[in-house]
Amino acid sequence: METLDTVPDEEFLRLDHQICFSLHAATRAFNGVYREALKELGLTYPQYLVMLVLWEHGELPVKGIGERLRLDSGTLSPLLKRLEAAGYVERRRSAEDERSVTVRPTAAGAALRERALGVPRRIAAATGLDLASIGDLRDRLAALAARLDSLGPAELRASCD
Q1: 91 and 16 share one domain
Q2: Which of 46, 50, 96, 108 is most buried when burial is the number of CB atoms within 10 A of its CB?
Q3: Three-state SS across the chain?
């Protein structure tokens, strides 16, 4: 069995051995499938993610949306502006803290949810995986993200030695 200590450095430099590239390639493939599935809704994949969060949680501060989607405000603000221009969300300054902006779905945004109900099934079917395998993959990717998020610079350097 190969371990980190037994695989030659040259092997680690091969593109097809990079987990990051495998994730990148899968992400690009998913984006293509989502692009087609979301076309009839008039949403991009990032806009769809924002709407998923709002459909699930209702009104949220922009900061809360960004935390859930792992997006900074510079990326999130243009998404929210486009969704607002389309009539799907409403942004308001918080009465308690004027620095905070909250976002909630409008009636049109809520109606869009009904039209989006079939998207997750279409995406699941496109994977060719059964639901248990999808759940396992999602759990493993979440654990991987949590592990990588937990690494500080010192741990990252130490893991490379």
Answers
A1: yes
A2: 50
A3: CCCCCCCCHHHHCCHHHCHHHHHHHHHHHHHHHHHHHHHHHCCCHHHHHHHHHHHHHCCEEHHHHHHHHCCCHHHHHHHHHHHHHCCCEEEEECCCCCCCEEEEECHHHHHHHHHHCCHHHHHHHHHCCCHHHHHHHHHHHHHHHHHHHHCCHHHHHHHCC
Q: How far is CA 159 from the centre of its chain?
A: 27
Q: Are residues 66 and 86 in the same domain?
A: yes
pTM: 0.86
3-state secondary structure of 47: helix
- Mean pLDDT in consecutive groups of 10 residues from the start of the chain, 161 residues: 81 88 95 95 96 96 95 93 97 82 96 96 96 97 94 70 52
User: What tokens appear for 56 in the block?
Assistant: 């699930």
The predicted structure's pLDDT at residue 93: 87
Integer CA distances (angstroms), 75 to 65, 69, 80, 102, 121, in order: 11, 11, 9, 16, 28
Domain carrying residue 152: 129-161
Q: Are 107 and 60 in contact (CB under 8 A)?
A: no
And the tokens for 61?
Answer: 């501060």
